[in-house]
Amino acid sequence: MLRTQSTVLIAASTVIIAALAPLVMPINIATEILIFGIFAMSTNLLIGVSGLYSFGQAAFFGVGGYVAGYCFVHTNLPLSAGLVLAMLGSALVAGLVGAFSIRRTGIYFMMLTFAFNQMIYYLAYSWRAVTGGEDGMGGIRRPALDMPLVGNIDLGNHLNFYMLAAALFVASSILLFRLARSPLGLVLDAAKQNPRRTASLGFSVYRAQWIAFVVAGAIAGLAGALFALLYRIMPIDAISWTSSGNVVFMVVIGGMSSVLGPVLGAAIFIWLQGFFSLIWARWPLLFGVFIILVVLFLRGGVAELFDRARQAFTRKTPTPAVQGGSHE
Amino acid sequence: MTSLIAAQLINGVAIGMLYALTAFGLSIIKGLLNVPNFAHGAFFAVGAYVCYAADRAGMPFAVSLLLAFLVPAVLGVLVERLGVSRLMNSPYLYQLLFLFGTALVMEQLIIIIWGSVGLSMSPPAFLEGAFDLGFTYLPRYLVFNGCMAALTIMAVYLLIERTRIGSQIRAGIDKREMAQCLGIDVGRLITAGFGLGSGLAGLSGGLVLPLLGANATMGADMMAIAFVVLVIGGLGSIYGAIAAGILVGVIQSVSTVFVPAASTVLIYVAMIVTLTIRPQGLFGER
Amino acid sequence: MSEVAMGDAAMTNLAMQQVATPSATHLLEAVGVTKKFGANVVIENLSIGFAPGMLHSILGPNGAGKTTLFNLLTRDLPVTAGEILLRGERITAMKPHQIARLGVGRSYQISSVYLDLSFLDNVWLAAYRARHGGRMGWWKRVGSYGEIRDQACEVLEKLGLIGFRDLPAKAVSYGDQRLLEIAVTLATNPDILLLDEPTAGLSQRETERVKRFIESIKQQYLIVMIEHKMNVVMEISDRVHVMNRGTLIASGTAAEISRDEAVHRAYFGL
Amino acid sequence: MESLENPLRRALLKAGTAALGTSITGLSWAQSSGDALTMGVLSQNTGTFAYTGDLVLKGAKLAIEERGGSIQGRKINLIVRDDEGKPAVGVRRLTEAVASDKLKYFGGNFSSAVGLAELEVAKTEKVVQFAAGGSEDFTGSRCSPYTFQWSAHAYTALRATLEYVRQRMPDKKKIYTITADYVFGQSLLHYTQVAAKELGLELVGNDNHPSGERQYTQYFTKALSTRPDIICLLTSGADAVSAVRQFNSFGAKNVQLVGPWTLEVEQMRELSPAMRTGMILGLNYYHEIDSPVNKAFVQAYTKAYKAVPSYASAYGYDSFRTLLLAMDKAKSVEVDAVVKALEGMQYDSVFGPTTMDARTHQSIRPYYVIECKAPEAMKDESDFATIVATGTTPQPPELNECKRTA
């Protein structure tokens, strides 16, 4: 019963977020927040739901960006085709990387994803003909979006492009929310807590986690494609392992236990960077301090703050989280 | 051709010793903490800057190097006490992020203290110039570097294998529960190990100063390599890093004979191949 | 005198067992399996078979290799040598989840329920797998599988756990977690139940409960149970197998075993 | 569980996002005011070249102060953004500034990667970029109506440097090149080959190193094994600095180190004088340039900041100064008018008489060759070198890839 409602609630809240954002901040920041929101949510499918600490998600973000970029620079495919190809491309790469990495667990897994990320980075870096190497892939066009009924929508217009991003944002959050509460999601959660037992129940843990890895990769690819469209370039550093680290951090500040936590994380992350860099040239120091504080005192991320606040209001002790939940 | 490869081998080993030293520190910490120290690069940088400052203050090179070890070591102890140790019982993700944040802070502090313009320091006079081996030149300082790294590693090896604290550290790494049963304070052990590891990072930072100079981001570059070295060497064994360090140095150096531009990629290829065939690394146990 | 004779009987019995021939009478069996961890041999050339419709217990001092045997049967660990047969078919090379899907349900010695999941979800997972094979739906919500939820509730009912339905497993006593463990295993709807010390860490009362429960279901399954509590073993098992130092030293009815010399030696060093 | 939290979390989420948003806009709107003309310095305050941002800013400020902070009756509002030396961040900050601060003219980062990324945004947002940095794509394959190039063309640089080498040491002919493996490095290499051919120099070998490389002894080991007369570093920035340091450790005195586009003054500071001694370098700017504009600039700069101007500050000053000149010429601050005015504009810059190519937007100006002084020969610690030659040969048109038509 509750579950039924909460899908609706998720949809509602995402729509509301998407609708409010541009009213309170410059449109392109709002767009970027949604894009990284998508990226962060996809990453949380691995980190939060499946307990797979991947430090290589930027690779798939990047692949998506480059594929889409390539389509919109060298071909005149319609928008939809470009986005789909981007997702397929990322899914493919994620499939391969996952096939290798998931056999290893814990810190080995993390290092493998890290290594693959680095490797893909250097490949993109040296494959100048296609990716533009260090100077990035430039001259990406934003094809008009051809919609039935509505007709042709010019995405050159910031607001229209924002709408597109928002639509995809809502779609992916609903998808990821449903997935987290589907049998697959439950299996992933179970495998996170006790892979051996999950296998002895007759589930292929490897397969479940591989699927999660591919889905996360594909959605990261979608985010990457949107990113490439946003600034009409695909810069090389968007694919480096530091951006993998950043997205992990977005997830952590936002909180892993909910679907929307990571979006909040993305918002805070992007906003803080902009804010800090305006007030002090040595801003990364403030940022570092912020990371440290979050890790030491706010393990559950900002979402945890809300819970604490709620518990403060409603005196009753909370029933322990049933889905995902804490990792302590 | 052969002489060129020979030359690159020598050069590679010399470089490799430095990677080995840096990664060795990392691997001690990894061994005790079961977390790769994301702040290792920062300690490396601090070492370089401390060494520079000491040299400017007119101290002899030896003293500068000593300080390049001590200061980061103390810093390391602080970081471990104040932060890492509090996160012992949470998933390593949080320790990683904590160290990540610490690295950012240290990097910026360096800039605030020493400015963001890179710094250089010439090696002491008796180490300038190069040996002419006929088929190649071998910079004196590079040789010195290799030897110093080798000696340090040897010393630490003896410390760990031959002394009581050493045997405790080993116990802490190999069988922590047992160590606890033996009434060893694992917490203090980890602190000590973290300090030692950070110190080694700092020392190698000081050592490479005349070659690489000092700048705030030098840590990140070195850490990426140390990281690879650690993984190739084997997460299970602290000594694997030494052999792997030399290996990486040689790969990097010899590959310049054939495919210079690919040398970096090659290192990662090596890492992935290792992890896929032998997830525990070349020398890792279990 | 007679004791010796009886002992011999048990021995011949055992000898018969060790003739490594797959026999249709055995639903699940290990044929000449060996397991080594590095140098030390935990199980050595062990052959043991379990006939259907019975409750088998495996006895033996600690370190006899009982749990390791279970791990070999379910492929949680690969064998070093030998074969595992299920209904006469080789399953030695299969993966644990594949074996589980063939109807081998297992409970673990250290309780391995999902502490963060509710009782319902714990059992639900097992029931879902039993119903949908290996498939994992990714869109329909867990909540919307009505009939599976009902099955799960039934099982909880059976073990008198229905009250905990929506509590996370970590919120209840160890004893109840052990019961949940059994419930989960049952919900996979197996033909064969491997229970690893189902009563370990249970109070007297709880032990009684589990014992009676197992007895009540033993007609429907082939049950193999590792158990230390003699009273449990002796009262409900049809067949008792005794292991020591990685080998099978005796097999027989409870009565036979209680008089078996080798067993006495193994246990009381007589 | 989820669902229970949702309503409240949603509320707070909204509130949270709102709070974030307003403070963003709050902050940036605060900086723009009325009908002021917004110009921007987008440069690097973090990362390897963190120091450059401040230098560019100092130069730009000077140029604006000369005009009493206003142009064509419009007050000039100078905003500063940190692009962290990353293309992704650069474009983000630029788009923000255009959207919320009405940014019209900007410059500041001389990393080609960042510059070329910003070029795309400048083109779509129709704002003027005064770029610097090595890549010839600015005025070549990716030339844009809204982007102008301050730095000399790679061809001019190579030609000037090698010409000097040629006549300074006629007996040294064997050149070994070590090249950064990215676009800029490769175009340097390309023009080295062109110029070497024209001048009859022999290239005995080349190695590409991945950019960001910190370890160079292996490259020198290889290079020296071919016994060259000259080692030519076709790399720049931090890479070049490490390379020079490590070349020094070989103490190969008989091999001449040449850097056609390798170290600007900023990076020379990173080397101890002993390490620089005798190096032949090509520079975009050196504070001893003998032109009236430069003399005045150096004087003003030293007075204001107690230091001699460097490449970065000269870029900041000269590019902003040129923009303001163009606005005078156009009698307007409107982008299209100013662009038109700039195209083909002839003006006095810090380099003396300078022309802005109407089609490619490449500034046609001299390039300088210097020889580094030994420590004892230096009057003060910023007296690095003496200008020994200047070159003005522009890129041969047939080598230019710009598709635009004037």
Q: What is the beta-strand fraction of chain D?
A: 15-25%
Quantity of strands of chain D, as a count: 16
Q: Specify the CATH class of the domain at 15-102 and 227-270 in chain C.
A: Alpha Beta
Provide the low-confidence segments of chain D as ranges.
1-33
Share of helix among residues of chain C? 25-40%
Most extensive interface, chain pair and sizes: A-D, 69 and 58 residues
Q: Average pLDDT of chain D, to the nearest integer?
A: 85
Largest sheet of chain D: 7 strands, mixed
Please provide the count of β strands of chain C.
10
Instruction: Report the sheet with the most strands of chain C, covering strand number, pairing sense and barrel closure.
Output: 6 strands, mixed
Q: How many helices of chain C?
A: 10
For the structure shown, list the relevant keywords:
heterotetramer; B: 286 residues; mainly alpha; two-stranded antiparallel ribbon; 11 helices; 2 strands; D: 406 residues; alpha/beta; seven-stranded mixed β-sheet; six-stranded mixed β-sheet; 13 helices; disordered N terminus
Describe what you observe in this structure.
- Chain B is an all-alpha fold and 286 residues long.
- Chain B is 74% helix and 2% strand.
- Chain B contains eleven helices and two strands; from the N terminus they run H-H-H-H-E-E-H-H-H-H-H-H-H.
- In chain B, helix 2 crosses helix 8.
- Chain C is 39% helix and 22% strand.
- By secondary structure, chain C is α/β, with parallel strands linked by helices.
- Chain C is built from ten helices and ten strands.
- Chain D is of the alpha/beta class and 406 residues long.
- Helices cover 44% and strands 20% of the residues of chain D.
- In chain D, the strands form three sheets. Chain D has a seven-stranded mixed sheet with strand order 8-7-9-10-11-15-16, sandwiched between helices. Chain D has a six-stranded mixed sheet with strand order 2-3-1-4-5-6, with helices on both faces. In chain D, strands 12-13-14 form a three-stranded antiparallel sheet.
- In chain D, helix 12 packs across helix 13.
- Chain D is globular and about 65 Å long.
- Residues 1-33 of chain D have low confidence and may be disordered.
- Chains A and D meet through helix 1, helix 2, helix 5, helix 12 and helix 14 of A and helix 1, helix 3 and helix 4 of D.
